[in-house]
Automatic annotation (TrEMBL):
GO terms for cellular component: cytoplasm; nucleus. It catalyses: N-terminal L-alanyl-L-prolyl-L-lysyl-[protein] + 3 S-adenosyl-L-methionine = N-terminal N,N,N-trimethyl-L-alanyl-L-prolyl-L-lysyl-[protein] + 3 S-adenosyl-L-homocysteine + 3 H(+); N-terminal L-prolyl-L-prolyl-L-lysyl-[protein] + 2 S-adenosyl-L-methionine = N-terminal N,N-dimethyl-L-prolyl-L-prolyl-L-lysyl-[protein] + 2 S-adenosyl-L-homocysteine + 2 H(+); N-terminal L-seryl-L-prolyl-L-lysyl-[protein] + 3 S-adenosyl-L-methionine = N-terminal N,N,N-trimethyl-L-seryl-L-prolyl-L-lysyl-[protein] + 3 S-adenosyl-L-homocysteine + 3 H(+). One of its GO terms (biological process) is methylation. Keywords: Methyltransferase, Nucleus, S-adenosyl-L-methionine, Transferase. Belongs to the methyltransferase superfamily. NTM1 family. This is protein N-terminal methyltransferase. It comes from Micrurus surinamensis (Surinam coral snake). It is found in: Nucleus. Its EC number is 2.1.1.244. S-adenosyl-L-methionine binds at residues 111, 116, 133-135, 161-162, 177.
């Protein structure tokens, strides 16, 4: 995991070798080499030559993905339970009783897709959840996928994170999983700055994502980048956030 919070940020190890909404990574070399053309550099700006094309290609990729759990996880739907379990265990560290306890009133699910994380992680822990995703079909599917518990979803925001601004002083937890690779460095920086403003007192931002072994790797398939830990930490600190764990 990797996270950041309005004066607090969380940073444990990734439990599974995934990126995007759940894709094979460098650790899975046979799969990686079979279907991915990559190039490595030090910053995402070095590999994103055309910003508009970078975003439009990603939007097109996800429009063609089926609105299912397997689709959200790139064909790796079987890892969903393990993923949710490890996320829950991590998040509980901040929801325990104590002077700096994070609240449980409202969470924001970024890159929410059909609501896999909202349904199994956030709704069981928070009174209400907001969802944001760039793909309208996913959000429409979420309204049935979530079932009756979906009544506790306040808002379904159809928007790219590069254009999304959380309402200030609103969220206890902002959960950002397998989606930061769809933002340029500049847009990720500015998005995290806006997220910081969106936190309530003792609120946290959690980023769960795959980290490259070195530099930045471009994925031409879904038009995303995978950054190494040093690059991500640098962006987080420049956003005025502190690493917690």
């Amino acid at each position: 995991y990797m996270g950041s919070a309005g004066e607090r940020t969380c940073f444990p190890q990734l439990p599974r070798p995934l990126s995007g909404r759940g894709k094979p990574t460098q650790q899975q070399k046979p799969v990686w080499l079979f279907w991915r053309k990559t190039q490595t550099t030090t910053m995402a700006s070095d590999v994103v030559e055309d910003e508009m094309e970078f975003y439009s290609k990603a939007e097109k990729y996800w429009r063609d993905v089926p609105p299912t759990v397997d689709g959200m996880l790139g064909g790796y739907g079987h890892i969903s339970s393990i993923d949710i379990s490890s996320s829950r265990k991590f998040l509980h560290r901040f929801l325990r009783d104590g002077p700096n306890r994070t609240g449980t009133a409202l969470a924001l699910d970024c890159g929410a897709g059909i609501g896999r994380i909202t349904k199994r992680l956030l709704l069981p822990l928070f009174k209400s959840v907001d969802m944001v995703d760039v793909t309208e079909d996913f959000l429409n599917k979420a309204k049935t996928y979530l079932g009756t518990e979906g009544q506790r979803v306040r808002n379904y925001f159809c928007c790219g994170l590069q254009d999304f601004s959380p309402e200030p002083n609103t969220y206890d937890v902002i959960w950002i999983q397998w989606v930061i690779g769809h933002l340029t460095d500049e847009h990720l920086l500015h998005f995290l700055q806006r997220c910081r403003l969106g936190l309530r007192p003792n609120g946290i931002i959690v980023i769960k994502d795959n980290m490259a072994q070195e530099g930045v790797i471009m994925d031409e398939v879904d038009s995303s980048v995978c950054r190494d830990l040093e690059v991500v930490c640098k962006i987080i600190r420049h956003a005025g956030l502190s690493l917690l764990a």
